[in-house]
């Protein structure tokens, strides 16, 4: 089974380009707040904890736990035809932030707090996007 999205193009803005470029190398980036030390997702412009805008990108471990998910049995867009059923959800990175991602795990094995690891997938334009498999 392929986990790529054959008919989807992901448009990457300059602001989040480093995040998607890192995914292409098999690395997930977070931002670390210089003021309080908490980590946040890459698209965020301010720290979720203290609201500081003094953030610096850093490589995350790529490990996480499954928080919540949904199984898509019918495509929500024609580009998804032929890849259903698929799973999408949120993972909690070991560094703390939650990240939306494709979940590459059989539905029978899904459970809260399941250990997962980064396994980036690829859109039709070659852009990697967040996906996680069972650790």
From TrEMBL:
Kindly give the InterPro entries that the UniProt entry links to this protein.
Answer: ChsH2_C (IPR002878), ChsH2_Znr (IPR022002), NA-bd_OB-fold (IPR012340), Thioester_dehydratase-like (IPR052513)
Pfam families in the record, alphabetically?
A: OB_ChsH2_C, zf-ChsH2
Where's the ChsH2 rubredoxin-like zinc ribbon domain?
20-55
User: Locate the ChsH2 C-terminal OB-fold domain: which residues?
Assistant: 58-118
Q: Which PANTHER family does this entry report, sorted A to Z?
A: BLR3430 PROTEIN
What is the protein named?
OB-fold protein
């Amino acid at each position: 089974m392929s986990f790529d999205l054959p008919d989807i193009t992901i448009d990457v803005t300059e602001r989040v380009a480093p995040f998607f470029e890192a995914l292409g190398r098999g690395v997930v980036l977070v931002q670390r707040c210089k003021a309080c030390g908490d980590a946040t997702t890459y698209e965020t412009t301010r720290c979720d904890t203290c609201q500081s805008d003094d953030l610096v990108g850093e490589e995350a471990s790529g490990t996480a736990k499954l928080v919540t998910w949904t199984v898509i049995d019918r495509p929500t867009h024609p580009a998804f035809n032929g890849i259903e059923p698929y799973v999408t959800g949120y993972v909690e990175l070991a560094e703390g932030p939650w990240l939306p991602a494709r979940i590459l795990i059989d539905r029978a094995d899904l459970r809260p707090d399941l250990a997962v690891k980064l396994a980036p997938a690829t859109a039709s334009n070659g852009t990697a996007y967040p996906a996680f498999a069972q650790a």
